[in-house]
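Quick one, tokens below:
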């Protein structure tokens, strides 16, 4: 009996030993198979526009092929899908809307080639002229790559009307290059947008947006060519990008909140702006932070602009760590905004401004009035802080600050802002 027990014990120990030796091998094989299966189940499915008939010669209208490719992307059963616009190609696209919602949980548009707008205004005949390419209702969309969107806006800059005989005001506004409407969890990376007829990018009714490492370029004299316009959007981050246009580099419009702008090189253009606000009724902007930006040779530096007679409020807005280089009007609050200077309202109502911070702003101005805080007589501007702001003239001449109905304090600032409380 003892021998049987001893034999059984030896067999058990031997079996355990073999299992301990071989188990890691089987376990590794199991993990490899699991990874293989997982990679198949979660693999990105790729669609190339060339396979749907796109030519990419810069002459053929490739929109039909793009729309076919988009339909395949949007209806794909894969959870992650990539739409490829290949390099060394120019794809001519007539105006269109790229719409969702789509089945994949994530869609990635890889822009390696160039996408160009039509070279005649007639391509917009019978279509709205407010946009070239509109992306609507697409969540978890990523647009990236080293390709270029060319809006060919020079066709519109001298005459923004669809034709010389039109009398309809709506046809006298050139198209925005890219509009993203109701696109949550949007990512735009690396691409270049040039020569838009009007604004280059508009975000409207979007949430959780990140725009980074892009380039936006149009001549300084191109009219109304804002870089990025944000309206009715929340949780937006715009950073580490170059924007050179004929209007605002970035403009934050009504209904927007929790907007962070950093690492922007702006110029030429009209600087970085909140507004204009109040022209269309009650508007709200809050929790905007503009940090560590460089502004060169622009018409204005950082500003808040509101129309007389407007309603609403803008609050908790900070401009910090801004470098100015030969800027015309470096620091502005303008509650009497009326760019045409024709038929301007004379109304005491205004968008209320409060909790506005200008901190760590340094550089040079082409004007002697380097700080201008012009606020409404009845509403005024409350809780303004101007801290460590040092602005001098490019030619060494004396500079000064101007104030109307502004309330708050200033510290360590030159020139002194005497209407505010001193340190």
């Amino acid at each position: 009996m003892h021998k049987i027990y001893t034999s059984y014990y030896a067999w058990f120990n031997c079996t355990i030993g073999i299992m301990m030796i071989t188990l890691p091998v089987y376990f590794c094989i199991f993990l490899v198979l699991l990874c293989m299966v997982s990679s198949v189940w979660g693999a990105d499915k790729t669609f190339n526009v060339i396979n749907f008939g796109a030519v990419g010669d810069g002459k053929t209208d490739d929109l039909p092929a793009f729309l076919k490719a988009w339909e395949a992307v949007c209806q794909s059963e894969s959870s992650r899908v990539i739409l490829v616009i290949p390099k060394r190609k120019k794809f001519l696209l007539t105006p269109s809307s790229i719409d969702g919602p789509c089945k994949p949980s994530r869609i990635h548009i890889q822009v390696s080639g160039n996408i160009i707008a039509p070279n005649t205004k007639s391509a917009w005949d019978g279509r709205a002229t407010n946009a070239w390419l509109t992306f609507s209702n697409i969540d978890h969309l990523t647009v990236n790559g080293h390709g270029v969107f060319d809006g060919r806006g020079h066709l519109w800059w001298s005459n923004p009307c669809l034709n010389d005989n039109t009398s309809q005001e709506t046809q006298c506004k050139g198209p925005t290059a890219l509009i993203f409407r109701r696109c949550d969890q949007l990512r735009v990376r690396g691409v270049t947008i040039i020569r838009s007829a009007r604004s280059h990018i508009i975000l409207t009714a979007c949430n959780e947006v990140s725009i980074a490492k892009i380039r936006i370029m149009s001549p300084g004299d191109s009219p109304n060519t804002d870089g990025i316009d944000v309206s009715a959007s929340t949780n937006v981050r715009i950073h580490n990008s170059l924007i050179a246009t004929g209007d605002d580099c970035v403009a934050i419009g009504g209904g927007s909140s929790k907007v962070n702008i950093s690492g922007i090189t702006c110029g030429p253009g009209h600087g970085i702006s909140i507004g204009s606000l109040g022209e269309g009724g009650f508007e709200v902007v809050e929790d905007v932070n503009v940090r560590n930006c460089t502004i060169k040779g622009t018409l204005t530096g950082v500003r808040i602009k509101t129309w007389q007679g407007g309603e609403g409020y803008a609050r908790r807005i900070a401009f910090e760590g801004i470098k100015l280089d030969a800027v015309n009007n470096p620091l502005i609050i303008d509650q009497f905004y009326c760019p045409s200077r024709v038929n301007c309202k004379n109304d005491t109502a205004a968008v209320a401004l409060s909790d506005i911070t200008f901190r760590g702003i340094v550089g040079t101005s082409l004007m002697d009035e380097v700080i201008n805080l012009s606020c409404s007589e009845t509403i005024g501007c409350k809780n303004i802080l101007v801290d460590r702001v040092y602005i001098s003239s490019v030619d060494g001449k004396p500079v000064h600050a101007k104030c109307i109905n502004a309330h708050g304090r200033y510290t360590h600032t030159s020139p002194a802002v005497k209407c505010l409380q001193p340190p």
